[in-house]
User: What shape does this take?
Amino acid sequence: MKRVAFSSPIHDALTVGRSRIVGRGLFAGGPIARRAKIGEFEGEVITIREARHRARARKVIAIVELVTKAIDARGMRTGFRYINHSCEPNTFMRRTDERAEFYALRDIRAGEELTLDYGDNHHEGRLACRCGAARCRGKL
Assistant: This one.
């Protein structure tokens, strides 16, 4: 699959391409230093109630709940909607009432897939985890 590059307002050279985890993933186009801000989740701002309603009707969920609202990235062709789950991630997400920001947990190599531990999510333990990490929990 061809990788599609895009510019994050914070960190350039992120690409979307085939993931070894599932479907498409988000990849570092260059090295990213530990604790560096990588970018932000983008999409339609909706209520949390609407987010939960939409999540129940979808197989693929690209929604992040913030403090009092949510962001739905469905239909976005680039960006953090493609970040896959890993039980041993290389990024973390900081949520405020206005945004969901992604930071590097450790130094990330060019070409490495960016991953996030989804934690509490709309799958509620019903989806098998495919991350392949040594300490995989088995479910999302």
